[in-house]
Design goal:
The complex is a heterodimer of chains A (84) and B (422). Chain A has 84 residues and is mainly beta. Chain A has a single domain, classed as Ubiquitin-like (UB roll) (Roll), CATH 3.10.20.30. Chain A contains one helix and seven strands. In chain A, the strands form two sheets. Chain A has a five-stranded mixed β-sheet, with helices on one face. Chain B is α/β, with parallel strands linked by helices. The model of chain B has no long low-confidence stretch (mean pLDDT 92). Classes of the chains: A mainly beta (84), B alpha/beta (422). At the A-B interface, α1 of A face β9 and α3 of B. The complex binds FE2/S2 (inorganic) cluster. FE2/S2 (inorganic) cluster (FES) binds next to loops of chain A.
Chain lengths: 84, 422
């Protein structure tokens, strides 16, 4: 585990091939942002169906549960407060 | 036209089995899947170097299918999402393979989704589907961090609980609304169902996991610390402070936003048409592939598949064994409970639309099923809340795209169709 993704300012290690959602969960990050509706964004279905885990990955909106980690990938919440 | 491939959406049991049958008849196919690897939900593969959590029977079933997939050299593109098919038969693919194609036929094998009944607090971070926990276990052989509670109803709760035990991280408790073990009809299930259940129970009992049957998770609250689950047991209320809650209330076809196309054959196979589980999905995939091949080649259609009938009967029996009164609780949830997760719409918002709202009112005024998940997780409950006795109807007709598509994705989509017509 000497590769990292970057969740806001924090470097988070990952296992080759795992999803952003699973690396963030291991690091204790559950709340990924807050939608304009007030709803917290977080992993729910885990397989790309619910769209509850949307984040920005290298500037593109994507599902954290489908996005695979790669070294240096930068991640931001779409909106609102998120776990750090 | 006949050299255009048959597009198969979903690289799980049903999709791959159909692909094998079609390819055997000499028909070109293209299999896509939005995940980064084949397997679907049931046969989600472990990452390289991670030990598989599949049982012997599961591993055997999968390796036999994969041997056929390899023998037929079936082209598969992972990381590719199906946007939908329009009235002209043009299908939009985005992601790793980003293109518009005009397939000769489409097989939709998008599997199942989990059904999760709304409860106060079910939108809190850390609350997820039991299947989300299971797919993490399958890929990483790693449990979630912290204390885990599983609640809802269905055999999956026991399966995930047992997998957590095998990882030496047993759940704090399992809250099951039904009382399957107390139902004598349980013994009439096919033998493979019984041995599977017995294995799960053995793991759970050995790890001394408290199993509450006939119990309901009624509310989840969080005030600056753990998630606190309020449970109604048969012996009175209990609560559990935990870090992760896996909810599950059964499986349904994952068919939101999937439309048929009038100009090319469109077939739904496996759980995507009828949520009957893995055994049925495999049989349905092979049978559906044969049927489609016969249709396209003008040969005699195959005889109906008895395997599928057997699985349908077994699943109906399982549903009766797992019958419970949880649905009655749906009408009693507090008015401020969120029903639609995407648009944050509550039971009060639904009630404000008046009695028996039309699909149009539900969508345009209520915003139900208008969010990014397309009603996958709310439509069932919106339907149930308007009529608790009738099976829920979809809110309006399905419309593509079946998933949100970013403008960036559209811009990178190549359009060979346009070039063809120019
Ligand atoms: S958790 Fe549902 S789409 Fe990612």
């Amino acid at each position: 585990m000497n590769h990292h993704i970057h969740w806001q300012a924090r470097a988070i290690p990952f296992q080759t091939g795992e999803s952003v959602a699973s690396a963030l969960q291991r690091a204790g990050i559950h709340q990924l942002g807050r939608a304009p509706t007030g709803q917290a964004l977080a992993v729910f279905c885990g397989i790309g169906q619910c769209q509850g885990c949307l984040i920005m990955a290298d500037g593109q909106v994507t599902e954290a549960c489908l996005q695979i980690c790669r070294d240096g990938l930068t991640l931001q919440p779409l909106d609102g407060d998120a776990d750090v | 036209m006949s050299d255009h491939p048959i597009l198969i959406v979903g690289a799980g049991l049903a999709g791959l089995a159909a692909a094998v049958e079609l390819a055997r008849q000499g028909l070109p196919v293209l299999v896509i899947d939005q995940a980064q690897a084949i397997g679907g939900a049931v046969h989600r593969q472990p990452l390289p170097g991670v030990r598989s959590t599949a049982t012997g029977a599961q591993a055997h079933r999968w390796s036999r299918l994969i041997a056929e997939v390899q023998a037929q050299a079936i082209p598969i593109r992972c990381g590719t999402r199906f946007g939908g098919v329009d009235h002209t038969g043009a299908a939009l693919l985005t992601g790793a393979l980003s293109t518009l194609i005009r397939p000769r036929a489409i097989v939709l094998a998008t599997g199942a989704r989990e059904s999760v009944q709304p409860r106060p607090g079910w939108t809190l971070p850390g609350v997820m589907t039991a299947g989300a926990i299971q797919s993490r276990i399958k890929t990483l052989a790693e449990p979630p961090q912290g204390r885990v509670l599983l609640a809802g109803s269905g055999p999956l709760l026991l399966a995930v609980g047992a997998e957590l035990c095998r990882l030496r991280h047993p759940p704090i408790a399992i809250i099951e609304a039904a009382r399957p073990l107390f139902n004598p009809a349980s013994l009439t299930l096919p033998l493979p169902y019984l041995t599977e259940a017995a294995t799960y129970l053995a793991h759970l009992l050995r790890a001394r996991v408290p199993l509450f049957f006939g119990a309901h998770l009624t509310e989840i609250i969080q005030t600056n610390g753990p998630l606190v689950a309020q449970i109604d047991t048969r012996k009175g209320p209990r609560n559990f402070a935990v870090d992760v809650i896996g909810l599950h209330d059964g499986i349904r076809p994952n068919d939101a936003g999937l439309t048929n196309c009038d100009v090319i054959p469109t077939l739904r196979l496996g759980d995507c048409r009828e949520a009957l589980g893995a055994r049925a999905a495999l049989a349905d995939g092979f049978a559906g592939g044969q049927k489609l091949a016969a249709e396209l080649l003008g040969t005699t259609p195959p005889s109906p598949n008895h395997d599928l009938q057997r699985q349908r009967a077994a699943q109906a029996r399982l549903a009766r064994i797992y019958a419970h009164d949880g649905l009655a609780r749906l009408a009693e949830i507090p008015a401020e409970t969120v029903i639609c997760r995407c648009e944050n719409r509550t039971l009060a918002d639904l009630r404000a639309l008046g009695p028996a709202p039309t699909a149009r009112a539900l969508r345009l005024d209520g915003r139900f099923a208008m969010g990014a998940c397309q009603g996958r997780f709310c439509a069932e409950w919106v339907g149930r809340l308007s009529d608790l006795k009738a099976p829920p109807k979809p809110i309006g007709a399905a419309r593509w795209p079946s998933r949100p598509i970013s403008v960036a994705d559209l811009l990178t989509t190549s359009d060979p169709i346009e070039k063809e017509t120019k």
